[in-house]
Structures are given as structure tokens and as C-alpha cells.
């Protein structure tokens, strides 16, 4: 579904963060990526959806190579990206409006969008938050609502950047249950070993610019 090969990326005037990074995501997989702070994990996700353009290497998504901005429109529609910071994701006055925003933007009618909001919030156990003011939610609530805004667009793939940040243990367990119940393939960046072990079907570590499998971590 997604693949990168031999990626090289450096922010302007800085050493390369990705240098020979290669990985693929198959349908049905839940791939966990870990690695030290600043290793380039978020950078990799941003390259996958075309928010950053690599200086070297290739990106494929949904069966086609993606090079220029127009080729990434479809990728961003089909890959639901849950950002590391929910405040980057949520911008409407209420939870219902935030969750409805994506479907409305995709051309759904207000009635269809309302039905999607109700279904997604119910699926995530978030119905009581429906009419809450978004910026007054707790950090954990915001994180789950961020996931709801992405699921409302019915993506084919999920990209989750440290989704358990600021979640307490019961909410982390609930998020794990939610992810295990979803049909989508996903990439989950996580520093939490027990969450990775529970949720992931495969793991990679990003170190010194490359993605390596646990067997080669030695
Ligand atoms: N816009 C930017 N300009 C310059 N440097 C940046 C920029 N964004 C990120 N970096 C740097 O690039 C490196 C990789 O950042 P990135 O956020 O991809 O790492 P990460 O592996 O996701 O880290 P963490 O685990 O701490 O979230 C870091 O050293 C970071 O400071």
C-alpha cells in the first residue's frame, strides 16, 4: 500500500535525518516504528503523504510512484494522518464540527456528515464529547477526537504519530482495542514497548537514517 526506497532527506543546513531508509506497508499490516527522539520518524510520515519532498529515493503509494505535489493529493485523501500534536489537527469550535469537517470537505451532505459523526463517535466511545468545546478537552480526549476526525474520512491506511502520548493506562488500552478492531493497514510511531507489542504485527526501528528490523538490531 505504501513503500519508500533509499530515501534521503535533510532539513536545510542540517545533516541528513534519513539516509537510505527503505520500508513497505502491506494491506492488513500494523507496522510499528520506533527509534530515538529526533531520528526522523515524523519526517518519514510527512514524506509518505507529500508534506515534505525527499532529496533522494522514491515513494510509492496505492500502486503508483508519487513524485510531484499533484500526485500526492490522492495519497492524502486515502492515508489518514493523526498528527503527533492534536492541536495541529483540531481547529473547529466543537467536536462534532471537527469530525464533520473532513466528510463535508469530501462532498458529503450535512445530513450524511451528521450520520458519520454520530457513527464514528459511537464506535470510539466518544458520543458524550459530541457537543463539547474542542479546545477545552483534556489532552487524552483531544487525541481520541483527532483519531475520530481521521476515521470520519474513511481512509485506506492510517498513519499515527505517537498516538499514546498523554493517554492514561485505561485510555491507552482502549486505543489499542480500537486499533486492533480497525480493518485498515497502519503505521504507528510509538515509544511505548508494551503498546507496540500489543498492537503491531511487525516492527521497525529508525536509526542513523535507516529502517532496520528487530532481527538486525543487534
Ligand atoms: N522544520 C524543521 N527544520 C529543521 N529541523 C527540523 C525540522 N523538523 C524537524 N527537524 C529536526 O529533524 C530531526 C528529525 O525530526 P523528527 O520530528 O522527524 O524526529 P522523530 O524521530 O519524529 O522525533 P521524536 O521521537 O522526538 O518525535 C530532529 O533533529 C528535528 O529537530
TrEMBL record:
Its EC number is 3.6.3.27. InterPro entries: AAA+_ATPase (IPR003593), ABC_transporter-like_ATP-bd (IPR003439), ABC_transporter-like_CS (IPR017871), ABC_transpr_CbiO/EcfA_su (IPR015856), ECF_ABC_transporter_ATP-bd (IPR050095), P-loop_NTPase (IPR027417). The keyword ATP-binding applies. Keywords: ATP-binding, Hydrolase, Nucleotide-binding, Transport. Signal peptide: none annotated. Residues 2-217 form the ABC transporter domain. One of its GO terms (cellular component) is ATP-binding cassette (ABC) transporter complex. It is an enzyme of class 3 (hydrolase). It comes from the Bacteria. GO terms for molecular function: ATP binding; ATP hydrolysis activity; ATPase-coupled transmembrane transporter activity. Pfam families: ABC_tran. Belongs to the ABC transporter superfamily. PANTHER family: ENERGY-COUPLING FACTOR TRANSPORTER ATP-BINDING PROTEIN ECFA1, HEAVY METAL TRANSPORTER. This is ABC transporter component.
Amino acid at each position: 500500500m505504501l513503500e519508500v526506497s533509499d530515501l534521503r532527506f535533510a532539513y536545510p543546513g542540517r545533516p541528513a535525518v534519513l539516509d537510505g531508509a527503505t520500508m513497505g506497508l502491506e494491506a492488513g499490516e500494523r507496522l510499528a516504528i520506533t527509534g530515538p527522539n529526533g531520528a526522523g520518524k515524523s519526517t518519514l510520515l510527512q514524506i509518505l503523504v507529500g508534506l515534505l519532498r525527499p532529496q533522494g529515493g522514491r515513494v510509492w503509494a496505492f500502486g503508483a510512484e508519487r513524485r510531484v505535489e499533484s500526485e500526492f493529493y490522492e495519497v492524502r485523501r486515502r492515508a489518514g494522518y493523526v498528527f503527533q500534536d492534536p492541536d495541529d489537527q483540531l481547529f473547529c469550535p466543537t467536536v462534532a464540527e471537527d469530525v464533520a469537517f473532513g466528510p463535508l470537505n469530501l462532498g458529503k451532505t450535512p445530513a450524511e456528515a451528521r450520520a458519520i459523526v454520530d457513527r464514528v463517535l459511537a464506535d470510539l466511545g466518544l458520543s458524550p464529547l459530541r457537543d463539547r468545546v474542542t479546545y477545552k478537552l483534556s489532552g487524552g480526549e483531544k487525541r481520541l477526537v483527532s483519531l475520530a476526525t481521521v476515521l470520519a474520512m474513511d481512509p485506506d491506511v492510517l498513519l499515527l504519530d505517537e498516538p499514546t502520548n498523554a493517554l492514561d493506562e485505561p485510555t491507552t488500552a482502549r486505543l489499542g482495542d480500537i486499533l486492533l478492531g480497525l480493518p485498515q493497514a497502519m503505521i504507528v510511531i510509538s515509544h511505548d514497548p508494551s503498546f507496540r507489542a500489543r498492537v503491531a504485527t511487525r516492527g521497525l526501528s529508525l536509526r542513523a537514517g535507516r529502517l532496520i528490523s528487530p532481527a538486525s538490531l543487534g
